[in-house]
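Fold this complex.
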Amino acid sequence: MGSAQQLHLGVALDGAGQHPAAWRVSAVRPAALFTAAHYLAHAKLAEAASLDFVTLDDTLGLQPGGEEVVRGRLDALLTFAAIAPVTSGIGLIPMVTTTHTEPFHISTAVASLDFASRGRAGVLAVPSRTEAEVTHFGRRTLPSEVDAEAENAEVVDVIARLWDSWEDGAIIRDEPSGRFIDREKLHYVDFEGRFFSVKGPSITPRPPQGRPVVAVHGDSPYAHGADVVLVDEVRGARERFPGAKLLAGLSIVLAETEQAAIDRRRALEAYAPFPSGGLSFTGTPADLATELPRLADAGGLDGFHLRPAVLPDDLALFTAETVPALQTAGVFRPAYTGTTLRDHLGLGVAANKYAEA
Amino acid sequence: MPKQVKLAAHFPGVNNTTVWSDPRSGSQIDFSSFEHLARTAERGKFDFLFLAEGLRLREHAGKILDSDVVGRPNTTTVLAALSAVTTRLGLAGTLSSTFNEPYEVARQVASIDHPSGGRAAWNVVTSPDGWTGQNFRRGGFLKREDRYRRAEEFLATVRELWNSWAPDAVVGDKENGVFARGIERFVHSGAQFDIRGEFTVPRTPQGQPIVIQAGDSDEGREFAAKTADVIFSRHGSLESGKEFFADVKRRLPAHGREPGELLIMPAATFVLGDTEEDAHEYAREIRYQQVRPETAIQFLEQVWSRDLSAYDADGPLPEVDPDPDAEPLTWGRVRHEKDPLAVAAKWRAIAEEKKLSIRELVIEVTARQQFVGTARQVAESIDEYVQNDAADGFVLVPHLTPTGLDAFVDDVVPHLRELGVFRTDYSGDTLREHLFSR
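Structure:
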């Protein structure tokens, strides 16, 4: 495989694709967006190509727009939980809102997703930025962007503390002493932050990965880093998040010829413009395979967060043609080499902050 | 047709009912354990599987309790995952109305009802204590009288959200570009919640997921009679079961409901044997596994509110009396008795009369297994309770994770079928159909 940089590839499984009119041109049945089968089918496509992970957006409010766009969605973490036992390799990173929710519940939910997927869970921790969500909870006012990002970082901190609050091996089932756990290996986190406090320990033992993968959006100037940072604005991102796995959002419109891809793009744009932000590529799967390492190199990127314009079309072409070309070029794994999402991302074993070295 | 029995499977809990010292005892946390119990229950054509919840690890004498099974996963995440490995079984879980908000509970339950094709149920509980609240940003201390007020308004709000999308709102007209139409805004303005906006989840397959309530107090019974589909209870004897049943069912008409609209399902443990003697012998063994020496001392300390660790569980009861004014030693466990001095006096009398050690006494006075006998006897007992209106069915609590239900499904369920009181297969797809279709 040589020493070429290995790309990390995640795929957004939102709606029937990234484009607002994707649901109209896709073969996907609109009502299927509220079933697990839809997400399972697309996750399996990604898994068959040994991609790193899939993501699913979520908010605690309805998507903006009128009758002509997809509105409504299920809880993203629970949707991925509903496919976790029947997938085997793909990482699962649901978006979770950190503003109106309880960090304690987020921590146990992600840990439990990690148990259900046997070590393939992550979480995309995102602060809420809408007034609508404020009125759905009625407990606080909309925080400023700087505070929302600071609170997001606090949530990211405390959920990891809660994962660590049970050391590995805390369950001893020691019959002679009558102890199910070694309570010396459980820890109160006693977290007192600017936004909330949490006593701990978690009700859930440390999950298979120790620490499931934490991802954040990095585009806010106030964003704090995490294991994985997803950005639309590539410029300056590497410097801002030197230690993170940095993945750029990339929308893709693919077809067997460049002209056919351009035609597909135009046909979609006749319905509505593409959402702004992030990189975009329109062309053949083979050309995309040539383009990705170059883009990664230029931006100091570890990989890409792909946004197929239409599902399953653009994901199917990507996995069937772009991925084999990347594998031939030696820049993407021919198969999973590990079993956990941390393995896929090369994150190594997560140290426990409470365990003695 | 005789009255049909409803059955639910309780995933073994984090308490001393669950025996971990048995070599067959498996993980209480790995998903495979939940999958095993769910597949077993579904094989037996049970109505639903039930997961309890506790949001802070139990403590005793200022330390995390280490003698019982400890640690469990997040309820909704496990239920959603179980929807992938089952096709008909109802999926029920406890979610606190104190440490959650209506919008997120409505979403979570709806997000289980959709992928499962209409199999979700929510056990509404109220959590009064600030001690658990230390794990949550909202804190959470509620005055006792406010608990049901909050729970009732919480549930009403959740139902407003479930109802906010018209049943046919997802149009999916690709040609004319209409994805959804008829998403009504909700407005809820009450003493507990003042919220408005739009819900994110289309009306679910059940429309109204099943609601369970588990309070035994007068307020709890009234709440259930007014608004729940199922009530859990803990009434061991036939007589007390009948009393509870009659009391709850008679409350329904005042709320415009038929007696059949609320099902009464007590929790029940069971022990099976090839002969009745075997079963009783095995039941005795299990009781000794459930009440270990340290469990017995802790149980006593819970009433005494004193450090009794110096006492021998195989010896006599302490001569010292309980400290009636002390802070409770145990947190997170249901407190069974209210007047510690009276309890101690009663227990002393029992211990003296029967010549019991501390451990034997605790075994004597704490809940023993409900149904003990051969598979046939257990089936007949269950049937007797149901036909005599002491219950509509039972939530079975196995003492072993995850295989504790296997023998019940293999051996008892066929007898229930022979008696003509339990389904041979599911006749509907949704939990509501399992519970209420005739």
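Chain B touches chain A through 75 residues (CB under 8 Å).
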